Amino acid sequence: MSKIIFVTFLFISSVSLAQYSSDAATPEIYEHDTIVWFGADFSQFNLCNSKKVGQDDKLYVYIQAWKEQYDNLSNTKLAYLLKREKVIDDKAYTDKAYRLLESERWIYNTDEKPKLTPSDLQDLIQEYESEEVDGIGLVYVIESFFKGRPTSVNGYFVWFDIETKEILHIYNSVGTPSNSYYNSWGLEINWDDSLPVSKGMTGYWYHGMLDATLNFTIDFKTAIPRKERQY
User: Fold this and answer.
1) What is the pTM of this model?
2) Which of 11, 122, 130, 207 is the most buried (most CB within 10 A)?
3) pLDDT tens for residues 143-174?
4) Four-point Cα dihedral 200, 202, 204, 207, nearest 10
5) Total Cβ atoms within 10 A of residue 30
6) Residue 153 dihedral angles phi and psi, to the nearest 5°
7) Structurally, how many domains does the chain consist of?
8) Which residue positions in the chain have pLDDT lower than 70?
9) Domain assignment of residue 163, given as a range
10) How far is CA 16 from CA 13, 27, 86, in A?
11) Burial class (CB in 10 A: 0-12, 13-18, 19+), 110
């Protein structure tokens, strides 16, 4: 009996690790020309920066800034980057999810860098609400902004079945932040007057999110089955 349990554990672990990769190889995610886009989910977010520890309340406004700036990525642009026919916008849930951090600690020392597991992400997706009743959903779950060596934006692009909430694939994507005030597609960033005055901290990490997104879309397109790529 113990041998059977052990083999079962290995099987489950291998499935989770197979999903938790940078290889977009799960067939289901290529079979839909229409994707429901949930945008960026900051509900699990952490800033790992030893110099900012203790400033959770003071810097909370930046989370809103990063979220708002990233949501400027249009459905048309995302559809183009993923070579999909149509992207449906459904950010209502993620627009409110990050507010859960308001009364919690979310800034840590760099030696406390968190790590989300496939199980954590599945539990998160299970709570999602959507006006769409079926189809394929895609969300960018931000894990952390890490100020260290190397400095990076860490997160996961998660594909899931909207009806069952089952995760189909997890793409671990890392982006490199920059002080450039131009995004990864050569478009100037338009700053809203209501966002933090310090464009340095806002733009620096936002650029890293765009870089992570670009890395993800490039790998996704590269892995599209050749037959579909002729679409």
Assistant:
1) 0.83
2) 207
3) 999 998 899 999 999 999 999 999 999 999 99
4) -140
5) 21
6) -105, 120
7) 1
8) 1-26, 100, 102-103, 180-199, 226-231
9) 2-229
10) 5, 16, 29
11) middle
